Amino acid sequence: MLAFAILVIVHEFGHYLFSRIFGVRVEKFYLFFNPWFTLFKYKPKKKEGDNGKASWRDTEYGIGWLPLGGYCKIAGMIDESMDKEQMKQPVQPWEFRSKPAWQRLLIMVGGVLFNFVLAIIIYAGMVYAWGEQYITFCDATDGMEYCESAHRIGFKDGDIPLAADGDELSYLTGDELMKMLGAHTVTVLRNNADTVAIAIPENYIFEANKEAEAGIPFMMYRYPVVVADVQPGMGAEKAGLQKLDKIVAVDSVMTVGYTEFKQQLDRHAGKETSITVLRDGKTVTVDAEIDGSGKLGILLAPITEIYKTTTKDYSLFASIPRGVSLGVEKLSSYVSQMKYVFTSDGVQQLGGFGAIGSIFPEKWNWEQFWSVTAFLSVILAFMNILPIPALDGGHVLFLLYEIITRRQPSEKFMENAQIIGMAFLFLLLIYANGNDIYRFFFK
Predict the structure, then answer these.
(1) In terms of domains, do 154 and 118 share one?
(2) Which of 113-122, 210-219, 271-280, 307-316 is predicted with the least confidence, judged by mean pLDDT?
(3) Which of 16, 221, 313, 388 is the most exposed place for a label (fewest CB within 10 A)?
(4) Are 150 and 42 within 8 A, CB to CB?
C-alpha cells in the first residue's frame, strides 16, 4: 500500500505541477478515490488579492477510501469526474481548455514523465546505497540448473548462457531471463568446451511462466555442496566431514549441485552410505548415516563464497547515469513483453492487486521494496501512456490529432470516448482481479 500511495501521489503531482506552471486551476488533488465520502480533506482559505488567477489555494487536497488510484481534477477538462455542467459554462482563462494544445499536452504527459523520473531516482539511489553485487554466468563455473520444460527444448544442467539472439548475457536478472525466454535462439557453453545453439519455441515463455507460478524457476545457479559447518550428533560430524569439504558424490553417484545431492540423500534416508568429498585437492570417501528425513547434518557455504562475486560501487554522480540506464532497460524489457499479453495464454495470466502484492517480499527489506516500487513506477508510466480513452495516453492521442490537423475533437466525442475508455478499464480491472481470485482458490 505504501508503494502504491507513493506512485499515485507522484503521478498526480506531475499533472498538478504542469497545470500550475501554465496557470490552470486544479480543483481537487486526491490520493485514492472518494465516491460518497472522504477520509480526509483540506481546502486552504482563499487569500485576498488573488485576482482570479490560479493558485494552490484553489485545490482541495484529500484522501479517499477506495485504493484504486487517485485523481487530479483539472478545471475545464473532460476527465473521470464527467463534470458536464462546468463544460457548459463560458471558457475561463484559468481552464485547461483555454490553453494552447502544446501546454495541454505537457499537462497530460506530466504524470507519466514523473513516474518514469521517479523510477530513475530510485534506481540511482539503490546503486548508490547498495551498489550492485552479482555472479556473472561465466564465473558460475558449474553452470546453471534448468527446469523440466527447459530440458525438453534442449537445455542441459551445467549449460552456461552466453547470448540471446546474439545479444550477450551477463548475469541472472529478470531482464536477462526475459531476453532468453523471448529469443529465437540462445547460445550456451556446454561442458566448458562446446558452444551450442538452442532454438526457443514460439510462446515458450508461457510454459516457463506456468512452472514459475508453481515455484519452479526456469533456471538458477548450480549450487555446489560445500560444507560451512556440521551439526553436532548427526551423520556428517560422526563421519568426520570438515569445513570447506566439497561433496561431489553420494553412493558413487555424482552430485555436481545441491539438487542431485538432495535427491541422493532422499533415496538413502535412514541408511548409511558413502560420501565422496574433495578436501585440500584430494578425493576422500567416508561412510555417513543419513537420518530418516534425508538429512546429513551440514550447513551449506553461501553461493557468494563458492563463485567469484563481482561488486560494483557507484559514486553519487556515477549513480545517476546508471539509474537512467536501469530505468530504460526495465522499460524496454516490459514493452517487449507486451506482445504476449495479446495472446490467449497472455490474457489468462493477467493479474490484479493480488498479483502485484505477491511480488513484494514476505519479510520487510528496504532494497527489495524500492526495487519493486521502481519497477511498478515504470509499469504505471507505460500503461498510462497507452492510447486508451480515460488514460493519459488517450488524451495525448487526441491532442496530437489536434496539433496535426488543427481541429479539436468535439466535447460530445470526448465525453463518449471517456465513457468507453472507463468502461473498458473497469472490465479489465474486474477480469484481472478475477484471475487472481481464481488462481488463489482453484490453482
Answers:
(1) no
(2) 210-219
(3) 313
(4) no
Q: How far apart are CA 355 and CA 191, in angstroms?
A: 38
Domain final position from 289, 312, 335: 312
For 247, phi and psi rounded to 5 degrees?
Answer: -80, 120
pTM value?
Answer: 0.69
Q: Report pLDDT for 52.
A: 62
Residue with cell 531482464: 175
> Considering only CA atoms, which of 327, 333, 328, 326 is closest in space to residue 183?
333
As a whole number of angstroms, the distance between CA 337 and CA 179 comes to 10
Averaged pLDDT, 4-12: 91
- Please name which of 84, 111, 137 lies closest in space to residue 16, comparing C-alpha atoms: 111
Q: Are residues 115 and 138 in the same domain?
A: no
CB 266 within 8 A of CB 204: no
Element (H, E) at 168: strand 167-168
CATH code for the domain in which residue 256 is found: 2.30.42.10
Supply 412's cell numbers: 460530445
Contact 60, 27 (CB under 8 A): yes
Pairwise CA distance, residues 228 & 243, whole Å: 5
Domain with 163, as residue range(s), is 133-222+306-312
Q: What is the per-residue pLDDT for 32?
A: 87
Q: Are 47 and 55 in contact (CB under 8 A)?
A: yes
